[in-house]
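job 3f2a | input accepted
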Amino acid sequence: ILKTFLFSSVNNYGAVMYQAYVSRYVFGCTSGDDDYEDCLTPLKSLLIMIFIIRAINVIQGVIEPAYTQANKIIEVQKANGALRPDDNVKIQLGIVADSADSSKCELMCKDGTGEFISIDGLPLGVLFMQPDNTESFSTDFKESDPKNPHIAVLMCKYRSFGNNEFQATILDVVKPPSKKVAIFTQDALATAIDNANELTKEAMLNDMERYEMEYYLEPYEGLFDEYAEIVLQMGYVVMFSLAWNMIPAVALAEILLQIRGDAYQFCNIKRRADPVPCEDVGYWSTLISYVPLCGVLSNTAIICFTTNALDGWGAESKLFTWLIMEHAMLCIVNSGLFNPEEPEWIGQVEKRNAYVVDKYKNVKIDDDEGLGGGAAGNLDADDMNLTAAANELMPANAEKVEYLKEQLRLTDNKIGDLRRQLKKAMSGELWNEVTGVSESTMVPGLALGMLNVTILSLSGVGTERKPMKADQTRIIVALRVNPQMSAEERAAPKGYEGPPGPAPVVSRKGTEKTKNNKKLIEINQEIQLAPIKTIKAEIVFDIVDERSRKKRASAVLPLKELGSQVSVDKSLKVNPKKGDEESAHGTLHVRAHFQYSKVKPIKERMYKVFEMKRHLEKDITNIMIGRDMEYESEWQFPR
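job 3f2a | predicted structure (639 res):
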């Protein structure tokens, strides 16, 4: 700190000291043809310029990072599929003409049973306004029936002017049935409204927690710059106020500006700082204590060398006079004769602050029976001796508290490690909410889903008349979209182009084995498929007779069953080909591992660790205040 601060001091005070003590004897105090009255005038001009520059730096230090951060957040939000307040939400609802007013319409959605109901009576939490261009499309839904309404594609936007308003504009009206669009259900409509509501929150990232959001903020670099600014400004006030008597007022204005600027940066631009316990401000306290000494030396030097007070005196006389003045002032300052006595109220505040710190560092229960049953077990906010309460803990409870605190420290370390892992993972991938698979940040649109499948064995396929021979059996592994998807899911955007995965892969031939007196076809081959573009697809295992080149049976494994991203063994039911009723349902044994995001498992671990931290903090508090632990079963206390 000392070396860096001394370097900053030379940069800040060098020009001022040169102007104050040296310039007079090198160039004199002149400006053009006119001599200055003394050298205070150019020194005052320099100080004014310095404080203007400092104010500009404070303002620029807030505006420039804020602008950069806002652009960065917008880019991240767009990359993650998040919506901005100036974006719109597309909703598809049923639309029929209003029998009372032809210029209006009635909007409808589906309930849980598939029946069409009006949205006017639904508890949506918003006032759904009439579309602003209803009359333009009135002829398109004129013949619409409430039991089979036309489909209106609406572009909606959330507004709040005292009442929550959901404004809509009709983009198109489609006559049912339609393969491209479908009417929203009540749940889908509620979700769309919630998403639109989130658009008004400027700093929200889609499906991201606060700690994830902070990784897009500027890293916190410590308090050195803040301390240095304050100490340097204190130096200007103490050492050069004699040259410009407005320095204290200007410094106060700068401090007020800097307080608001720093507050904005800590809340919106910089990452949250990790709290670190400290006894005091460290070496800054020593530096501050030397500022008054520098002030005595500087002000006496200004009187002797800068002003005209000693004009006509020789250099040696001025130096000798300065030495006498600064020694006399230092003696007066250090004597304490003119130090004001500490007001009584300051002493009371200090005692109160020490008392409050002691109260909250150690917890005490006020169980005074004289206060009645209602007061028992409550914290006494006015008369606590918390240190004594902590000392009154039973040895067994004290050991439990120490154990839990140690676990809490380990948990904090885990959170730090997971945050670093999350930052690294998020730098390489973007989450696609539509497909449920992450995409590369370096190659836009490249899905990162990867499937490893090990085909272990096959049993129970074929008949006595048409047996499956191991050396003629191959399995084709392919991905396809789930054919049982609903019409709404099919109409929704896929989020990717082309097939859901790579081309099919054919396994090698099997070998016949016998296990537990049961014949099976062993393949034991690992197959890798990438890129996988969506988690909504399913793996299809087609069992083929190589001799006849015909499919004999197939098995299906949805990718959603592999959502845990860990390797799992599956025994899949093998369904014979249609028309081959003689074949029995066999079993295909596979080992599958589907990895589609590095971020998701880290986030899930973080959720668990944060939950564990909350439990630890709560049980530590419970023990300290004499209550039973709520999560005792989770801890393995040493015996």
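job 3f2a | Confidence is low (pLDDT under 50) at residues 31-35, 80-86, 199-209, 364-388.
job 3f2a | closed
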